[in-house]
């Protein structure tokens, strides 16, 4: 693997979602609306949890961190993307590209770990509800969340350093709307096999391990729920997990389809569509999923709307 000192590129040109000038305004308005929905939806979830003491439980503590992560990692992408819809030269400096790759990966990996922690939390809550508050005490919850954030930052550092050890010589045009590892691999003028191997190893720890842990957690959850005698009890137990499971499916299917596939299957246009899905639509749907399918959040939202009406 050659040193990055051979790199002659000082900036990258992002082609964006579309090269057709006549639709740039419509794309800008669409993604501005999506970004505002992500900010408002996730920050509203955080606000409701903070101000309602009956939501001060481990599950909602983890949900707060998930919502914060959603805001952070979409903010790594959207402001630049929105600006580029009207920019004649859609450039990003070499340094800013490094920062974007690192930040985007950090929050994305942290989300993988937080979703795993949330699966474990639901497993403990359903397996042994009488000792749940003792097992998932404040210290345990803080440790799990801190580990998720640190894991994201450390894994992202390894991936980012490895990626930018590659050399980028003359070609600096990225057929994407953000700096992303698969697109940068295709742009490098040196052998990328070692870096791709490091990327795949990291994917095992940041994608395969979390989804495997989540899968086993839900196998145990299902086995536990099926042993509940009353239909009402089974329904209540499943309802506490359905929102999380839906979010997991939406997030992991799209991310794994992008990062865990052979390089030979690389397709810039398809990759942009997949990235849009997990960068834009999944963070937009998460607040809706948790608010519409969660009784406690709906109660908190109803109380907030009642206070607003009274004032």
Question: What this model shows, in words?
Answer:
The N and C termini lie far apart (64 Å). This protein has a single domain (4-310), classed as Up-down Bundle (Rhopdopsin 7-helix transmembrane proteins), CATH 1.20.1070. Helices cover 73% and strands 3% of the residues. The longest helix has 34 residues, at 94-127. Strands 2-1-3 form a 3-stranded mixed beta sheet. It has helices spanning 24-51, 58-75, 78-84, 94-127, 132-135, 138-163, 181-187, 193-226, 231-259, 268-292, 295-310, and strands at residues 11-14, 91-93, 173-174. With 311 residues, it is mostly helical. It has 11 helices and 3 strands; from the N terminus they run βαααβαααβααααα. Helix 1 packs parallel to helix 10 (268-292) and helix 8 packs antiparallel against helix 9 (231-259).
CATH class: Mainly Alpha
CATH topology: Rhopdopsin 7-helix transmembrane proteins
Strand order, sheet with most strands:
2-1-3
Please give the domain count: 1
Number of DSSP-assigned strands: 3
Q: How would you sum up the global shape?
A: globular
Q: Return the CATH architecture.
A: Up-down Bundle
Helix and strand element order:
EHHHEHHHEHHHHH
Helix proportion of residues, in percent? over 70%
**What is the radius of gyration?**
21 Å
Q: Ends: how far apart?
A: 64 Å
Q: Give the rounded overall mean pLDDT.
A: 87
Low-confidence stretches: 1-5
Describe the SSE topology:
Blueprint: E1 11-14, H1 24-51, H2 58-75, H3 78-84, E2 91-93, H4 94-127, H5 132-135, H6 138-163, E3 173-174, H7 181-187, H8 193-226, H9 231-259, H10 268-292, H11 295-310
């Amino acid at each position: 693997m050659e040193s990055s000192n051979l790199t002659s590129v000082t900036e990258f040109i992002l082609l964006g979602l579309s090269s057709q000038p006549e639709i740039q305004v419509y794309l800008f308005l669409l993604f501005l609306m999506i970004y505002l929905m992500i900010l408002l939806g996730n920050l509203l979830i955080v606000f409701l949890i903070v101000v309602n003491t009956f939501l001060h439980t481990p599950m909602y503590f983890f949900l707060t961190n998930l919502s914060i992560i959603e805001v952070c990692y979409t903010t790594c992408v959207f402001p630049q993307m929105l600006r580029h819809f009207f920019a004649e030269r859609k450039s990003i400096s070499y340094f800013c590209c490094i920062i974007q790759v690192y930040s985007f990966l950090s929050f994305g990996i942290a989300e993988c770990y937080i979703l795993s922690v949330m699966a474990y939390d639901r497993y403990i809550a359903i397996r042994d509800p009488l000792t749940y508050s003792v097992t998932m005490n404040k210290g345990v919850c803080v440790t799990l969340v801190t580990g998720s954030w640190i894991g994201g930052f450390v894994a992202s550092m390894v991936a980012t350093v490895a990626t930018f050890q590659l050399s980028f010589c003359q070609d600096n045009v990225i057929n994407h709307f953000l700096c992303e590892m698969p697109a940068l691999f295709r742009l490098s003028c040196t052998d990328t096999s070692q870096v791709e191997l490091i990327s795949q190893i990291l994917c095992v720890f940041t994608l395969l391990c979390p989804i495997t842990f989540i899968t086993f957690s839900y196998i145990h959850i299902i086995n536990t729920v099926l042993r509940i005698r009353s239909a009402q009890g089974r329904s209540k137990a499943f309802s506490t997990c359905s929102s999380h499971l839906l979010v997991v499916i939406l997030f992991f299917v799209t991310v794994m389809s992008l990062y865990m596939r052979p390089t030979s299957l690389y397709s810039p246009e398809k990759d942009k569509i997949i990235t849009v899905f997990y960068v834009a639509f999944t963070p937009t749907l998460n607040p809706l999923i948790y608010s519409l399918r969660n009784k406690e959040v709906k109660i908190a939202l109803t109380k907030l709307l009642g206070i607003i009406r009274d004032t």
